[in-house]
Amino acid sequence: MTDTLIKVDLDTSPYDNEMIHNRWHPDIPMACWVEPGDDFKIETFDWTGGQIKNDDDAADVRDVDLSQVHFLSGPIGVKGAEPGDLLVVDILDIGAFDHSLWGFNGFFSKQNGGGFLTEHYPLAQKSIWDFEGMFTKSRHIPGVRYAGLIHPGLIGCLPDQKMLDTWNSREKALFDTDPTRVPTLATLPDGGPSAHMGRLKGEARDKAAAEGARTVPPREHGGNCDIKDLSRGSKVYFPVYVDGAGLSMGDLHFSQGDGEITFCGAIEMAGWLHIKVSLIKDGMAKYGIKNPIFRPSPMAPKYDDFLIFEGISVDEGGKQHYLDVHIAYRQACLNAIEYLKKFGYSGAQAYSILGTAPVQGHISGVVDVPNACATLWLPTDIFEFDLMPGVDGPTKYLDGSVDMPLAPDL
Amino acid sequence: MTDTLIKVDLDTSPYDNEMIHNRWHPDIPMACWVEPGDDFKIETFDWTGGQIKNDDDAADVRDVDLSQVHFLSGPIGVKGAEPGDLLVVDILDIGAFDHSLWGFNGFFSKQNGGGFLTEHYPLAQKSIWDFEGMFTKSRHIPGVRYAGLIHPGLIGCLPDQKMLDTWNSREKALFDTDPTRVPTLATLPDGGPSAHMGRLKGEARDKAAAEGARTVPPREHGGNCDIKDLSRGSKVYFPVYVDGAGLSMGDLHFSQGDGEITFCGAIEMAGWLHIKVSLIKDGMAKYGIKNPIFRPSPMAPKYDDFLIFEGISVDEGGKQHYLDVHIAYRQACLNAIEYLKKFGYSGAQAYSILGTAPVQGHISGVVDVPNACATLWLPTDIFEFDLMPGVDGPTKYLDGSVDMPLAPDL
Amino acid sequence: MTDTLIKVDLDTSPYDNEMIHNRWHPDIPMACWVEPGDDFKIETFDWTGGQIKNDDDAADVRDVDLSQVHFLSGPIGVKGAEPGDLLVVDILDIGAFDHSLWGFNGFFSKQNGGGFLTEHYPLAQKSIWDFEGMFTKSRHIPGVRYAGLIHPGLIGCLPDQKMLDTWNSREKALFDTDPTRVPTLATLPDGGPSAHMGRLKGEARDKAAAEGARTVPPREHGGNCDIKDLSRGSKVYFPVYVDGAGLSMGDLHFSQGDGEITFCGAIEMAGWLHIKVSLIKDGMAKYGIKNPIFRPSPMAPKYDDFLIFEGISVDEGGKQHYLDVHIAYRQACLNAIEYLKKFGYSGAQAYSILGTAPVQGHISGVVDVPNACATLWLPTDIFEFDLMPGVDGPTKYLDGSVDMPLAPDL
Amino acid sequence: MTDTLIKVDLDTSPYDNEMIHNRWHPDIPMACWVEPGDDFKIETFDWTGGQIKNDDDAADVRDVDLSQVHFLSGPIGVKGAEPGDLLVVDILDIGAFDHSLWGFNGFFSKQNGGGFLTEHYPLAQKSIWDFEGMFTKSRHIPGVRYAGLIHPGLIGCLPDQKMLDTWNSREKALFDTDPTRVPTLATLPDGGPSAHMGRLKGEARDKAAAEGARTVPPREHGGNCDIKDLSRGSKVYFPVYVDGAGLSMGDLHFSQGDGEITFCGAIEMAGWLHIKVSLIKDGMAKYGIKNPIFRPSPMAPKYDDFLIFEGISVDEGGKQHYLDVHIAYRQACLNAIEYLKKFGYSGAQAYSILGTAPVQGHISGVVDVPNACATLWLPTDIFEFDLMPGVDGPTKYLDGSVDMPLAPDL
């Protein structure tokens, strides 16, 4: 029986659990300590800490309090880890709880974070996904079923003070270029009551909360990378910045597409990880490592027949941008959505498929001025019908009777 | 014996061949006509028309005349094709010529086009790649060998006048924002002697040359997409804009990484394609198609063990950018290069590997403000040595005695 | 929470559990009933019912009582199922128990069942395999680690009386050709106390036990097929012979090679399955089905780099056999074992690797008289060292200090 | 330009070409010599030397003279190769001739060699397969199209006299157990005019012909293994028995299923190989090698969605056999044929698909007395229609208007 070092109770608030935190700061005390070579289990809340329910009403997505995210389990101290080391993490397994075999996906309101296509889908919507063993399907999006490529959206080690200061200053600089923008350009430390600093209390807590970095973006330490292939069976090498490393993780995803374009997010779930840790002493210098590197799992869904959509960096208004992969990928996604609509999906359903299925987003061409070219790889085997083009045109597989719940802005 | 409809003679100038062109314009006459259902072969020059030689001097890369590129074979008229149709192209096979079993890769001087990492590698360099059956290796970059994922970097149909005007106006608008920039923001029609308008002559030629779009960027019709997976065995659906479709192709690549980051470019070669064409009448409306879509080949190198590098949208100077995938991918590439240098490669060699090997570039996270996250997937099986990190640190596999030729700016 | 319809207590005897049986007979009462469309969990003993222990002594393997095997969970009645239907089983997931994260592999003594290479390894030996999440490794066989391709070695529906009679008569006919052979040619009904007929009692039990077929061989209904690819995520179509179908299963394997050559067997374990059932009415006639057919899982370990060994149907003594694939595969296995010994493995360790790792056994040529050709595909990625041949010869990776426990015949 | 060391003229008889032979004997002189490290091309006849024509009449298959097969190109001498070495052969590429883009498949008459299912299909039939680039399809078998996994059915080194004597004596011993059997149990040396001993002439030729082993079966040196995965891109390690090794090859296949069950055979073709040779001195002892071993290509068709059929070792008459994989595989094949007939194929067409498509034949269980279990893996992506079972039963895709030519016995 493998030890579970951090447990969560989904019926209680994450704020009541001292082994949880939702900001990055070197002062957060280790929640527990392990030895190199140990393997153990860690439980996690879903990234919102239970704000989204398994129902047919998107109001909870609309009203989500994003100042709370992401609830992370940790930090885990690894004995002997020192700044400059690489912390090697074998992700041995990941799973949902037997009593919580579902996940959610959705789009935030443009007023509250939005998403990759927020100009096109500005209102809160959600879909619920049920897990049937290693597969998932949604009552809100018929016609698709996937095997999960389960992974932590967020995992990484504590920054030291210098790294933290770097993060805060560069993000503030960006934020200040357009401080009233909606959605915001960057999420800055707020120091408010939403900050959960683990078992840190009182003044120490307040100080750390005031400068603790939000967990939203990926950074040098990894963090919220939302890389679908950093899944069960992968081996990850993390930079270490503080004594003990301080590894934290959360934001489990049952399945996700490259880009996590729906922002809320993948198929989000609570659950557990089984991991093993070890060290490469002085590994950052030895291998010239700045950001984490990893070897993907030998085990992943074999969805390798694709229909591929191209996009270029000309925006929806016809304006030419210079080698902008972000815009090119958006066009590829929009092209795929238009295609899927011909088979009967609503745009929102198609958007959700791109956010939740193991679609690939490739940077296909990035030097042919002025157009970047991005490709969206849609796996055809996840559909219960034939998705390929034919001389007779598409068959409308869906009758439109089922759609995703939508909650208008108040 | 399959008919070869367009032949090229590598010992003569592409300008002497009326079945070649290097600009996009609806007035370019069809080089030949085929029926839907036909299969046939098409020969092509390399994209520069033979400017780069199989030697150890990068001066030809430095001095390349980019106003000439890309030399395309076509346009091929398909009987019955009308605007709004989809032209279905089965790429049945692609190969190099028996008398030309090599290709080139290089970086242009920053003064003449540059490349993805031109700030880091501003001078012209090149590597020559020999083909041994389905494999390639380079005398300038030891320790790697790949099976080719051969593909046309450039393939697409003629634009109509309206589409052409759209291209020209939007690219001019971008160019005008910084007309003296080096490298240029966009390559505009020039009407000069470099324009090869097929068999169009005299005034008609001059008029078309004056407004004929350069072939550099990918656009709605596909064109210079440089998608490595659009390879032999794939099936591509192209939008048709003019009667007869007018399919042209060229810029063959023996192998390339996602992004074609070296710009010059992949492993560039002359060669031939064997293709088959058919039509989906009114397919653009039936399937909501704006850009080409395709189904990849059932046949591709099985390099599926990877070491994956992350990059985020903080640039080399530490400046924070907003969800900029271009910058994030650049960081992932730079991270991979630093890693490879630990095994003895020069930076230029490592850069070339990323440009020529079947590396993948994924848009991993694109919503977690303010950082985009991109990943560079380096296939480990192409290396003759073990690339994985270990507790003992890297073994220097290469002694630095071999490097890529470099030609300083004059 | 998914319902568990059949539970097992590993601390008690399978004979005390009325939802278990170890013989095939149409009179065995259904242990439970489900509706088409239901999904549910089923727990199982290991195939020996706990006779083999997690220790370093092979005496239990030597002394195993094979008259007891296999302990199956079921039969499960499916409402509406009738003879001639196909019972569709989606294997949604399979796992070990949290309190029993290990499995065993071994060779029986030639005096008690033997194995594929019993002439070469005639004595009882065993290895214990620990599960670390989705991976397994053994303290008795260093240098290898696999991701599990978990599957039920045994699954199928109850025979009707006619099918049962066919089985018994044809196997008896074979047995009678050499009734004293060791190992035996066939395992016949014995009617003794070892027969567990589920909840059948008294005379009815004795009658059924007397003619109930042993579970050892695979037969028309599937049964003990030991097909490694019939794993979690696969979809199986079983012939139905009796009203309610009567689906039973057991003999879970964490990992196995094609052929299950060690006989005892794969990496054997207790555990649970999560399955879903549905029906294709009259499916046997519709599709001409005699034996089960299945579609493998989209999820399986990506061990696809192999070193492949050939074998032909000339036996160890040099005698020529006519297109005998059994002998050809034995030679391929022996060839692989000789190869592995050069790296330091004992023959027994190498034999165990072939029995437990996801090796493939292909029938490569079966018409070129007089030699069949079989190939053994050894996945190289499961080894912690480089297995490929080189000019310098093999490096002895193992020092021979660790071997598998052996229990001499008494 | 790669040198072609052995050329063939398909318009002339193989007997006129001194670089061809069709028997194995150490006295056959080397056709040419190469150095370790050389790469070069070798052309080959089809295995029958042109006896089968691209037409719609199976008389040529019925009347084939099998005493002539297989016409091999070689032997190629490798300088420095000595008995006990391993000859390493990189198969860099394989192709058909531009002027001969087709192949044949067929069943021999039971009176003349038969095939795996000769009791069920005792008469000569054939199908012709056209090559379209890397794909093939047949006018005699609609509804399927494959990418080729091109390979030499036959490749290996010359035996020494001792090895040759062993072959001849053991095969004669088998033959003598039933010398009048039809089809024959073994093909023995005949010394007749059909024997082509390369450039050996006169008495020396007659002596070698009298004892030269037929090329039909695979043996210790490899030879006629008909292993579909020994394809372009693979690396093979051959035992060396004579000075110079004496590598010969032929019997090219565009595509084949495991077992090559149709015997005539795969999709048989003339063509060329591009190979590279090197040596591992004393490699046989270093690695314990008796039969060739190989590493498969990184490039193979990605047909990895399968419908899998089981077979057990109970024969068509209901008789039980002991762990007989040959019979089990025959049952799996017959089961697949019955299934395919439900979609409209004739039995012969289905049989041909199993012989020519990249089907896999696995030895799934070989220890569960008395039944072996073999599985036939049918790739579903080669079919133009949906092959999976469904509640509505199969749709008859083919109307039976097209079938394979049959030539009754005379």
UniProtKB/TrEMBL annotation, chains A, B, C, D:
UniProt protein name: Acetamidase/formamidase family protein
PANTHER family per UniProt: FORMAMIDASE C869.04-RELATED
Region (Disordered): 188-226
Membrane-spanning segments: none
Any Pfam family: FmdA_AmdA
Species assigned in the record: Aurantimonas aggregata
Ranges annotated as biased composition (Basic and acidic residues): 200-209, 217-226
GO molecular function, one term: hydrolase activity, acting on carbon-nitrogen (but not peptide) bonds, in linear amides
